[in-house]
Design goal:
By secondary structure, the protein is α/β, with parallel strands linked by helices. Helices cover 55% and strands 13% of the residues. Strands 2-3-1-4-5 form a five-stranded parallel β-sheet, with helices on both faces. It is globular.
Length: 201
Amino acid sequence: MKHRIITISREFGSGGRTIGKQAAERLGLSCYDHELIDRMAEESGFAKEYIQEKAEYANYGSWLANAFSNRAMEGISNQDYLWSVQRRVILDLAGQGPCVIVGRCADYILREEAQCLKVFVHADLDKRADRIVRLYGQREEAPVKRLKDKDKRRASYYKFYTDLDWGDVRNYHLALDSGVLGIDTCVDIIVNTYRQMSSGT
């Protein structure tokens, strides 16, 4: 596979999904986010809502607790099965041509299969809290608590299936603070970096 892929990993509420979609539009590339869930639902038979929760977040904040949760005698859980489906779907989509893939451990899955520009988008808690309240409305659960829980479970999931630390800048080519840089500047940086890498400069 020779295609160059942009993978977007992101803290919850950082705007990583929006940044990925806008970068894809600027570059004329397909962007896969919810489309991954649709494909996984077709292949697995699980509901989209179930996949959205289980295919990126650990059941528990600890990767060790997650390792022993909901496993059959043979050691396979629904989450393990969804991981294998997710891997097949990502490899298939990446094999079809250059694209942007948001989340789902795509940076790890494609590490030996494609030429990736790996991006991690983050922001301070207060800015992310303000963003999720504006986008999703106020919930019973305090926004900061929601953010911490989502990030902890996402990090646990990533650690369990990749044995790498989610958010460790050494695992990415670009780490962008969207709260400081803003959405548009993050998009500009990704687009310009991708074009430079593609041209070999």
